[in-house]
Design a protein that fits this description.
The protein has helices at 86-98, 151-160, 166-184, and strands at 3-13, 18-26, 31-38, 42-51, 54-64, 69-73, 76-78, 100-112, 118-119, 121-132, 145-150. The protein is an alpha+beta fold. The protein folds into two domains: 3-36; 42-184, Nucleoside Triphosphate Pyrophosphohydrolase, CATH 3.90.79.10. Strands 4, 5, 6, 7, 8, 10 and 11 form a seven-stranded mixed beta sheet that branches. Strands 1-2-3-9 form a four-stranded mixed beta sheet, with no helix packed on it. The protein is globular and about 65 Å long.
Length: 185
């Protein structure tokens, strides 16, 4: 490893996040500081519906305090638990935020969110065979709006800046690569 941790101290904690400051030493002997945000694992779900009318995805619109605006994104989140079964988490988040249940959940990959500053795994799932039910959002998700959009419209939203969530864009890219490789194999 090219960086050695000299010391570490937690500077903040709440139920969702902890922040620590690490004094580090690089391979060249230079010391520095890293601020690290630690978060429990999360998931993001690509809810895909294929009908006679075409392909559709379900998006969540919600207010994101850190950037003070309402944005569209795929359903995603975590349970503030270090140990989770990724598929259970994905099924739970999908139902909580959208009311959807999935006949099939396919784990596409596991990514890291913003690993330049944060330590958080993000499990990417494809949800298919969707059935609509009743949403059960968390208290802080009281303002969620579920939107069903066609894939062509969704992709246009990614390109025109309507959707700015990098996790949504990454999940869609992973899905497209996965689908392409399944078709050609």
């Amino acid at each position: 490893m090219s960086i050695k941790t000299i010391s570490s101290r937690e500077v903040y904690r709440n139920p969702w996040t902890s922040v620590r400051e690490d004094v580090i030493e690089r391979a060249n002997g230079q010391r520095g500081i890293y601020g690290v945000i630690d978060k429990d694992p999360a998931c993001i779900i690509v809810p895909l519906e294929v009908t006679d009318e075409g392909e559709f995805v379900y998006l969540i619109e919600q207010f994101r305090y850190t950037v003070l605006g309402r944005f569209l994104e795929f359903p995603q989140g975590g349970w503030e638990q270090a140990e989770v079964v990724p598929e259970e988490l994905a099924r739970g988040e999908l139902r909580e935020e959208t009311g959807l249940t999935a006949e099939r959940m396919t784990h596409l990959t596991t990514l890291q969110i913003a690993y330049g500053v944060m330590n958080q795994k993000h499990h990417v799932f494809l949800a298919e065979g969707l059935t609509m039910g009743e949403a059960d959002p968390d208290v802080e998700e009281h303002d969620l709006v579920v939107r069903r959009v066609g894939v062509a419209e969704f992709e246009a939203m990614l390109l025109d800046g309507t959707i700015v969530d990098n996790c949504t864009a990454a999940a869609w890219g992973i899905y497209r690569l996965w689908r392409e490789r399944r078709i050609t194999v």
